[in-house]
Amino acid sequence: MEFIISENPSSEDVDEIYQGLKRHNIPYIGDIKESHIACFTNSNDGAKLGGIIGRTWGSWLLIKYLWVDETCHKQGMGTQLLATLENYAKESGCRFSLVDTMSFQAKPFYEKNGYQCKMTLDEYPAEGQLHFMTKELT
Length: 138
Description:
This protein has helices at residues 11-29, 77-91, 107-112; strands spanning 34-42, 48-57, 60-68, 96-102, 116-122, 129-136. By secondary structure, it is α+β, with helices and mostly antiparallel strands. The chain has one domain (30-136): Aminopeptidase, CATH 3.40.630.30. Strands 1-2-3-4-6-5 form a six-stranded mixed beta sheet. The protein is globular, with a radius of gyration of 17 Å. The chain starts with 10 loop residues before the first helix and ends with a strand. This is Biphenyl 2,3-dioxygenase.
């Protein structure tokens, strides 16, 4: 048996491992509906100005990335992106949302949008903090 370390695994390698884990989980949690989703906005010339990436899984919206171009900060774009994805998730049957954010990123933003910090990892990735935040989608 050989163990291989890859600092840049292929998407096929990642998907094969992910699919194996899903097959393992089915007897315990069933074949829960999952959907990868995104919402973004472009400038008139087609350049991305912001976006949010996540997935729905069962009754949860799992937010992976939220980004707004610096030229659009303080214009409400992040709030609109978040609300749009949350509304889509609610219409898809989600009742909760989960996001993690580092101490230098967007904890106050998520709190302003109804998220509560449930757990914090200190010294992440070295000297900062990683906050896990949830929200009930009502």
